[in-house]
Amino acid sequence: MNFSEILKFLIDLLAVFLLALGIKGLSKVRSARDANRLAAIAMTLAVVGVFVNSLGGSGIPLNAWAWIIVGSLVGTLLGAVVAKRVAMTAMPETVALFNGCGGMSSLLVALAVAFFPLSNSYGEVSTGLVEKISIVISVFVGSITFTGSIVAMAKLQGWLPTPGWMQSKMRHLINIALGVVALVSISTLLSGGDNGLWLLVISSALLGIGVTLPIGGADMPVVISLLNSYSGVAAASAGFVVGSQLLIVAGAMVGAAGLILTQVMCNGMNRSLVSVLFGGALGSTNSSGSAGSGEYINITSCSVEECALTLEAAERVIIVPGYGLAVAQAQHTLREVTRVLEGSGVEVTYAIHPVAGRMPGHMNVLLAEADVPYEQLKEMDIVNPEFPATDVVLVLGANDVVNPQAKNDPSSPLYGMPVLDVQEARTVFVVKRGMSAGYSGIKNDLFDLANTSMVFGDAKKVLGDLLVELKELGISGKS
Length: 479
Hints:
The protein has 18 helices and six strands. The chain is an alpha/beta fold and 479 residues long. The chain has three domains: 1-85; 89-282, no CATH class; 297-472, Rossmann fold (3-Layer(aba) Sandwich). A six-stranded parallel beta sheet has the order 3-2-1-4-5-6. Strand 4, helix 17 and strand 5 (427-432) form a beta-alpha-beta unit.
């Protein structure tokens, strides 16, 4: 090994170490921000390692450096713009887009090596079985990841509705046919033929669309984490294609982390991964069922003033954030309200459901942006036993994750899904724009309970008015 190869090995080793620390740190809210920085540094070192090895004579032509530099600058600029300008409500779509970019990158690497095989240090072209399998996996998984991620992004953005026929059993036949075509193409490629490459790309891309398009919004947290895992698998396969140990290790870690997170999301929804991928949208078949057709008969609405009076007298308050809070961009106003309550001696905590919002950890990121103390964020299993001893629960834009049907109604599509037991509290205030259903499309029995009051309005407007009322009642918080 020459000096550049040794230096690249050391840089790659450091990058893998930092990436592992970053992924580990992302498992906790308190360390997530620093962990993300570590992972970014690791990726920067990986790029530097490639440059160092190339300068040492590993084979990049001089006329290719202009493309490499321009590509790096454009990618850096786009990343900075996205990080600064994308709203928190659009973060799920952004994550889906980034997953798609990862899949496309692996696909392009595999195609490049397939058309222009790499040679070893002796000038020999390697066409072994391992290389062929790696190319096939990269093409197959990369294509599915790219098209599936783009479809997920478009559905989350509201650009792409689900066609009616995609909710029928016909979609399974189409996806099975595409899978068979992909398997035939793979067999052709592994047996030494080159004719099946583009057929594999097309069939895999269509399969990604066919599997993702019928999935409903309620299942999107699972889909996003699964696509994240796919992007890791594609990257690891691309690492075998180009002989990069760093890419193999990094892709394997991302793939494993994504699979674990997918399982956590499925457990949080009490659904199997098979039912998410092949069962269509949650609640898509319940339109005629009793759970979805009930009418509200005991709704109690109240004013912001009444809510403020109840909060003033409370000793313990639990906040339940949902996607409606993110849509209203009300997290900072909420933080001001809780500061006022804390200043008057009220104990405030936040109940975080694992699938609240549209992506894993969406609510954690949203509240961290507003400088909510990490120790106040409590997961469902920890906070559920605390509801009976809670004076007031303030539900902000959450719906399905607080629906008692999940525990009380065996006919409900939500039955068996772990939910937050907010109905056990003394008083529940639900802030919503109207009586629309959640992603499941079914009635929420919480709204009919005697201890529940509805505060209708935009979350940011309601919280702003609530802040004014609390201050007028003589409560002043500590900044």
